[in-house]
Specification:
- The protein is of the alpha/beta class.
- The protein has a domain at 85-268: Rossmann fold, CATH 3.40.50.
- Helix content is 36%, strand content 10%.
- It has 11 helices and 5 strands; from the N terminus they run ααβααβααβααβαβαα.
- Helix 9 (197-214) links the parallel strand 4 and strand 5.
- The chain is globular, with a radius of gyration of 22 Å.
Length: 268
């Protein structure tokens, strides 16, 4: 069962050593000063590596050479104004949030969703589209396309590894994390005959447990949007998978509360 396969890794507690004040015993020579070692030289930024053959981002995009679609936001990222409160990263559910219901994306909150992407593709662009933008919080919402098998062979462990890597990368850089529950779906229009409701529930159980263990915020969209059969409630989506304006209206207060929680946890 996917819920058993997705076993969260416990966060090791970090112990800070106390500062020690060294003094020489009475009658002895003073303790020599510490020899300060200078920091190593900074590794040149990618733009300064002249030996690299730089491939420009030029349309049309070739999925074979830009599997993670790094070109999608590369240039616009250079224009992001600071300070930045939050980045929403994910698949089409994130990408279509801003054009469908833009109220969430006030100044300082930006959308970095890409339709069709799996967790591994999102991970591949996470440093570019999140860490280098220095937000206070990142909202991660992915998994629908992993369940659908959009990018070929995968496994529950692959999904767990990608999510855990994004969480670790964010936390290592002082970024608060919101894990978004996958919205409900009874069927996928692009996967005839497939019924994903149970798999979505299992992944959301794992995401909630991970959030509790790591002290992350969990935005539970699923509970608010699911009917008794695990499918999307009527009126919240036009295709049973992607929220419409009414669906995003349900998600909005949940997202805002989770952003506040994540921000407080890292920036009290």
């Amino acid at each position: 069962m996917i819920a058993r396969a997705l076993r969260p890794v416990l966060l090791a507690a970090g112990l800070a050593a106390p500062a020690l004040a060294l003094a020489a015993p009475q009658g002895q020579a003073p303790v020599p000063q510490m020899v300060v070692q200078p920091a190593p030289p900074v590794v040149p930024a990618p733009d300064a590596i002249t030996a690299m053959t730089v491939q420009p981002c030029a349309p049309p995009r070739d999925p074979a050479t830009d599997w993670a679609n790094l070109c999608r936001y590369r240039e616009i990222n250079r224009t992001v104004e600071q300070p930045l409160r939050a980045v929403f990263i994910g698949d089409s559910i994130t990408e279509w949030w801003m054009p469908t219901a833009p109220a969430l994306f006030a100044p300082g909150v930006i959308d970095r969703g890409i339709s069709g992407q799996t967790s591994e593709q999102i991970l591949a662009r996470f440093y570019q589209d999140v860490v280098r933008l220095h937000p206070r919080v990142v909202h991660i919402l992915c998994g629908t396309n992993d369940i659908a098998g959009n990018a070929g062979p995968t496994s529950p462990d692959d999904y767990a590894n990608a999510v855990l890597a994004m969480v670790d990368m964010a936390r290592a850089n002082g970024i608060g994390v919101v894990l978004g529950a996958i919205p409900p779906a009874g069927a996928f229009g692009w996967r005839t005959g497939f019924r994903p409701a149970a798999q979505i529930i299992a992944i959301n159980i794992w995401l909630r447990a991970l959030a509790q263990q790591r002290g992350l915020a969990f935005a539970d969209y699923h509970t608010a949007m699911a009917g008794p059969d695990g499918a999307m409630k009527p009126g919240l989506s036009s295709d049973g998978v992607h929220p419409n304006a009414a669906g995003y209206a349900v998600m909005l207060p949940i997202a805002r509360a989770a952003l506040d929680q994540a921000e407080r946890s890292v920036h009290p």
